[in-house]
Amino acid sequence: MTRVPAAVFVALALLAACGSERPTETRPSPTPSPTPSPGLPGATPGRASGPTAIVLVAADPPPGATIAGCGSDASGCAGRVRMSFRVTPTGSGPVLVSVGFLHAADKTACLQGRSGPSALQAGEPQTVEIVFDRPDEGGRCRTPLELTDLAFNVEGTIEVASRQEWAFRYRLVP
Questions:
Q1: Which CATH architecture has domain 43-172?
Q2: How far is the C-alpha of 66 from the C-alpha of 51, rounded, in Å?
Q3: Tens digit of pLDDT per residue, the chain (174 long)?
Q4: Cβ(164)–Cβ(130) under 8 Å?
Q5: What is the pTM of this model?
Q6: Do strands 93-104 and 118-120 pair parallel, antiparallel, or not at all (unpaired)?
């Protein structure tokens, strides 16, 4: 029996490996969430999900304001807050509704606003106006009250459905 030098085995192994590379397997990954834009001063972007970038561009009254004359709960402030959002989708699709929520520290949605249906086109920014005219129906938002965050949802097909949150302050007083 003839002995084969180890160098021959190494050379044969390298030769066998040449040209036999397997293509790397590509696995689908979730759609990346856009990086939030700073947007409106006084509103600090937080968590975001979905393929549509959402930027808060205007609020009346501005973040940090005290809203007086609300009565005993948030329902007295319904309709007194308006906001504009710029939504820029990476995909196209229908939107059933866009919804904004102003939350108390315990995450109770004390005021809510909605827009009607629309259609988004990839890469085309669209402005959505919201009036926060729906108070908490459970009566849990008693004044004086500190609203601590804002959330905005684009509710539609998977190509456009997204959510953006902000640290945001309003003080509601009787």
A1: Sandwich (2.60)
A2: 34
A3: 455 455 444 444 444 444 444 444 333 333 444 444 456 888 999 999 999 999 999 999 999 999 999 999 999 999 999 999 999 999 999 999 999 999 999 999 999 999 999 999 999 999 999 999 999 988 899 999 999 999 999 999 999 999 999 999 999 999
A4: no
A5: 0.77
A6: antiparallel
